């Protein structure tokens, strides 16, 4: 039972690391798109909070 939990946690951790690495390289290739999308989400969250 503990081995199954360790395997699941390890797989989830590896997937998170791969997602972070791919996201980092995507932001390196497309910095303008990433910044504009972040600004849009911030504006949307700001409008919802008011």
Describe this structure as you would to a colleague:
The protein has 2 helices and no strands. The mean pLDDT is 79. By secondary structure, the chain is mainly α.
In short:
It contains 2 helices and no strands.
C-alpha Rg, in Å? 17 Å
Termini separation: 48 Å
Roughly how much helix do the residues carry, as a percent range? Answer: over 70%
The number of E-state strands comes to 0
Quick one: biggest sheet? none
Q: Estimate what percentage of residues fall within beta strands.
A: under 5%
The run of helices and strands is: HH
How would you sum up the global shape?
elongated
Properties at a glance:
single chain, 50 residues, 2 helices
List the helices and strands and how they pair.
Layout: H1 2-29, H2 31-49
Helix pairs in contact: 1-2
């Amino acid at each position: 039972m503990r081995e199954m939990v360790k395997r699941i946690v390890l797989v989830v951790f590896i997937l998170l690391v791969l997602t972070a690495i791919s996201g980092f390289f995507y932001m390196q290739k497309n910095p303008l798109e990433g910044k504009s999308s972040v600004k849009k989400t911030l504006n949307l969250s700001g409008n919802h909070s008011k």
